[in-house]
Amino acid sequence: MSEPRAARSTGEESIAGFGPVGFIGTGSLGGQLVRTLLRNGVHVAVLDVDRSAAEDLLNGGATWGGSVAELAKSCPTVVTCLPSPAALAGVLLGGDGLLANASGHLTWVDMGTTGPDEEVRLGQAALDAGAEMLEAPVTGGVHKAALGELTVLAGGARETFDRLRPLLGVLGSQVYYLGPLGQASRMKVITNLLAFINLVGVGEALMLAERSGLDLGVAYGAIRDSSGTSFVHETEGQLILSGSYDIGFTVDLALKDLGFALDLALAGTVPLELGSLVHQRFVQAKARYGGAALSPRVVQLLEDDVGVELRAPGFPERLVAPEGGPAAGRTGERSS
After folding, report:
1. Do residues 163 and 281 both lie within one domain?
2. CA 150 from chain center: how many Å?
3. pLDDT in tens, 271-316
4. Domain tally for the chain?
5. Which of 41, 173, 181, 211 could form a disulfide with 123 if both were Cys (CB 3.0 to 4.6 A apart)?
6. Are residues 129 and 167 in the same domain?
7. Pair 50, 79 in one domain
8. Bigger pLDDT: 207 vs 28
9. With contact defined as beta carbons under 8 Å apart, do 112 and 137 qualify?
């Protein structure tokens, strides 16, 4: 019998020997990951194209990495969490890139959603340069990242995974090893596909409740406690009802991930009827609100078309407070 490929973090893994860790990309998700490392005593050197995005991390104990080349020379382990494959390739490759400037043995961990083909290509480039590479995309949302409760999906050489397992266990409460490079990215694409389908479905369910004369606060709680609930309903549903839509994830990023899912479906000759419809809804959301709009605004398409806003009092504007802790907010009434 093969060994299980998933294990829940016990919180007891040793992280000695993992500092300093370089971290490139301190946006909504990356910033929370850095905070988790800092809370657990890891020395982190950070980089971002916008230094102001890292100021609170620098005030919280991180150091500034200077440049990609400097970071490569000073950090044996470097994590990237970047918004696109192009941004990642720009950091990794070329004379000023991570691989060309590594001092000694480099281990590179990619925690963004890059796509399986590109992960394999860049992983081979890392191997050719004498570095190790592990893909480790995460799922669960920015609010889970703030609590260190993400799920980490890892792919690459088993030896590399085993060595990095303590570090990954700090960043996520559950860590899954999926197999060779590319498999973790495929799994992440699949989970995101389900999340986006759920998001559109949550909007339709809440609109049906509103048009049926139901109290939306009570309806939220009833769905949450029913067989129709989902992680997306329990989290993003609150942000729809507050009107903020602020999940920290954009329509452009959703379209990137849905594009990866459609590519997987094409390669596997799998007809994605729901996935294709949801992809089109996000295309429409981008046309109406712009690619930088927050991804739950795909539900606003329905609100605008019906002429009704889905709102209920008491729900939070954000699921993560500005300082990085969980935001307070009503999660729905259990009775009227």
Report:
1. no
2. 9
3. 999 999 999 999 999 999 999 999 999 999 999 999 999 999 999 9
4. 2
5. 181
6. yes
7. yes
8. 207
9. yes
Domain final residue pick, 151, 180, 209: 180
- How many whole angstroms from its chain centre is CA 37? 16
Residues 90 and 220 in one domain: no
**In this predicted model, what pLDDT tens digit does every residue of 133-191 receive, in sequence order?**
999 999 998 888 888 889 999 999 999 999 999 999 999 999 999 999 999 999 999 99
Q: Contact 223/260 with Cβ under 8 angstroms? A: no
18 and 88: one domain? yes
Closest CA relative to residue 48, chosen from 39, 58, 38: 58
> The pTM is what?
0.89
Q: How many other C-beta atoms can be found within 10 angstroms of the C-beta atom of residue 177?
A: 23
In eight-state DSSP terms, residue 320 is B
Residue 335 counted as domain residue: no
Closest C-alpha among 196, 197, 236 to residue 320: 236
Q: Which domain holds residue 22?
A: 6-180
Q: What are 14-63's pLDDT values in tens digits? A: 676 677 999 999 998 999 999 999 999 999 999 999 999 999 999 999 99
Q: What is the identity of the amino acid at 110?
A: D
Virtual torsion, Cα 171, 176, 177, 180, nearest 10 deg: -90
